[in-house]
Specification:
Layout (H helix, E strand, L loop, with lengths): L1 E10 L2 E6 L5 E5 L6 H9 L23 E9 L2 E9 L3 E5 L2 E2 L12 E4 L5 H4 L2 H15 L1 H23 L10 H37 L6 E6 L9 H14 L1 H7 L10 E6 L2 E2 H4 L2 H23 L4 E5 L7 H9 L6 E5 L3 H4 L4 E7 L2 E2 L1
Parallel strand pairs: 3-13, 3-14, 8-12, 12-13
Antiparallel strand pairs: 1-2, 1-4, 4-5, 5-6, 6-7, 9-10, 10-11, 14-15
């Protein structure tokens, strides 16, 4: 997968930028707050996923701008293609000139992996960030997963609302059986896919982390299922989850929230058998996060046959020379966009194009 041309206008602080990138490494450099990360974010949106920085699409617009228009021409699945995103209060997408029902229809059509300093939260913060990482990775690979996750989330919200109302309307108690059956069915599909993906992730990340640490440390990753069942069989998971929902029903009513299910699951990430979150150094935690993201890229390639676009936001300068070298060696035959303040940091190790951004413009 290669971007041949990128055009971005009225996007955050970017007035207008058009680039014809290298098929290999592209270094986007400039001082802080000039628009480097905005350019990477605009590329990421073509995956069909939401921004990794903002919850509201309206926040992506330039100041006092009515809409933003972003376009790419790219090569994927053996042919030249194009995509367009118009952003006003929400996103509108076209692919090869045809308007799509939703930007989410771009999922599975364009692949990218983003790593920024904020992804250290994968290791340093709570399980919500690790669940989001798994869900975002799976949504790119499997559009049906995104739909199933949305159904589970909606059903969970409805069950939680019911738990709050039961104390005032006892007749609602009998309807819990219906909601539990739905929730266990949708939840089982989510858990099954997460466990399968985590197994792929564990094998890839272990090898990559070994390279980053020069073989001195071992990384292990395990999916922690809140129900206590570790099976890839969605039918088995459904029955077990349904049983646990019934067993914990009294607690759920008392607490007014659903206590079991994939919304409580986590990834257990360890270095040499110890929690990376609790005992890892800053450098070890950064290497863990990088291993996770590079593994994500490997899995996309393995499953789809397409090399994803790699987006690295201001991470190379914070790594020592050996780790920089290892990462760049593992980005061969992939198109990469790297932001930094000093392009010499990257270009001493590889060839590519540079793009200097200042105040949202290419100079």
């Amino acid at each position: 997968m290669i971007i041949n041309r990128l055009s971005v206008s009225d996007y955050r602080n970017i007035d207008y930028i058009q680039i014809v990138p290298s098929e290999n490494v592209n270094v986007i450099f400039g001082e802080n707050a000039q628009g480097k990360t905005n350019l990477l974010e605009s590329i990421w949106l073509f995956t069909g996923c939401k921004s990794f920085r903002s919850k509201k699409d309206s926040e992506l617009l330039g100041f006092k701008k009515e809409y933003s228009k972003n376009e790419i021409e790219y090569f994927a699945f053996g042919r030249e293609q194009s995509a367009e995103l118009i952003i006003d209060k929400k996103r509108h997408a076209k692919k090869n000139g045809i308007e799509l029902k939703s930007p989410a229809d771009l999922i599975g059509e364009f692949y990218a992996v983003i790593f920024s300093p904020s992804h250290l939260s994968l290791i340093q913060e709570g399980p919500v960030n690790r669940r989001k990482f798994l869900d975002t990775a799976l949504c790119q690979l499997k559009p049906f997963y995104a739909k199933g996750l949305a159904k589970y989330t909606h059903t969970l919200e409805q069950r939680n609302a019911l738990l709050k109302d039961i104390q005032f309307h006892s007749e609602l108690y009998d309807t819990l059986d219906i909601w539990d059956d739905k929730l266990s069915s949708y939840g089982a599909a989510v858990v099954s896919e997460r466990i399968k993906y985590s197994n792929f992730l564990s094998d890839n990340a272990k090898e990559i982390y070994s390279g980053l640490s020069s073989g001195k440390e071992e990384l292990t990753i395990e999916y922690v299922n809140n129900t206590g069942l570790y099976s890839e069989d969605p039918y088995e998971i459904k029955e077990f989850l349904l049983q646990r929902l019934r067993e914990t029903r009294r607690d759920d009513i008392f607490n007014k929230i659903t206590g079991v299910g994939p919304q409580r699951d986590d990834l257990n990430i360890k270095i040499n058998g110890l929690s990376a979150r609790n005992f890892g150094s800053q450098g070890q935690q950064r290497s863990c996060a990088l291993a996770l993201k590079l593994s994500e890229a490997n899995i996309i390639k393995e499953i789809t046959g397409e090399e994803p676009i790699i987006l690295l936001d201001d991470v190379m300068s914070e790594l020592d020379i050996s780790r920089q070298d290892y990462i760049l060696n593992h980005l061969e035959n992939r198109q990469v966009f790297i932001t930094c303040c000093d392009p010499a940091t990257v270009l001493r190790m590889c060839e590519g194009k540079t793009f200097h951004i200042e105040k949202g413009c290419l100079i």
